[in-house]
Amino acid sequence: MGAPEGRNFSSEAAVEVGRRAVTTIRRRWTFPFPIGTSMMAKLHGLQADYVFRGVDHIVRMTVEGNLLEVEVEDRLTTDQWRGEFDAAFIEDLTHKTGNFKQFGIFCNMLESALAQSSESVTLDLLTYSDLESLRNRKIGVGPRHLPAAKSSPLSSKRYLILIYSVEFDR
Questions:
Q1: Residues 80, 69: contact at Cβ < 8 Å?
Q2: Which of 69, 129, 134, 142 could be a cystine partner for 34, CB 3.0 to 4.6 Å?
Q3: Domain regions of the chain by residue span
Q4: What pLDDT was estimated at residue 42?
Q5: What Cα–Cα distance (Å) separates residue 39 from each residue in 65, 103, 119, 127, 131?
Q6: What is the Cα–Cα distance from 152 to 150, expressed in whole angstroms?
Q7: What domain of life does the native source organism fall in (predicted)?
């Protein structure tokens, strides 16, 4: 259909942000895209329209066994970003945030966020620059600018953030 080739996410950057954000009021997991349900042994998928920072996107997620696949597409530009994550990666990532979730529970949370069926879980889509701003704000440093040569590959990446807010954190 003429859509650009999908782009991969940086797992290292995602983990780094997830660890640092755990002390904020909301727990944040950086997670590149897909989702499923509690029936992990079978293929399950979901597609939803989602607005990130005023821009319409389509988010597709599938779970097959212990593999989560997520794809996000910008409706206007048709840019696409994809990521595949196994259960061990997801569980390790949530453990590093200080709020461990089993793979199936994490997938259910992501599905709820996409379906917007719970006020406790929401999503955000960030660029590398957005992550740097969060990181700098967290440590109390002003914004840093990377040279153009280094920022160009990073500028094409996106980071899907699953935000889990419990009642007294809101």
A1: no
A2: 69
A3: 11-163
A4: 52
A5: 8, 11, 23, 32, 33
A6: 6
A7: Eukaryota
User: CA 114, CA 110: separation in Å to the nearest integer?
Assistant: 6
Distance CA(57)–CA(78), nearest Å, equals 9
Higher pLDDT, 53 or 17: 53
Residue type, 77: T
Give 136's strand partners: none
| Of the candidates 148, 1, 124, the residue with the CA atom closest to the CA atom of residue 55 | 124
- Residues 93-111: tens digit of each pLDDT: 999 988 999 999 999 999 9
pTM given for the model? 0.69
CA distances from 46 to 7, 18, 49, 72, 136 (A): 20, 24, 10, 12, 35
Domain range 11-163, its CATH number among 2.60.40, 3.30.460, 1.10.150, 2.170.210: 2.170.210
Q: Rounded to an integer, what is the distance from CA 131 to the centroid of its chain?
A: 12
β pairing state of 55-64 and 158-164: unpaired
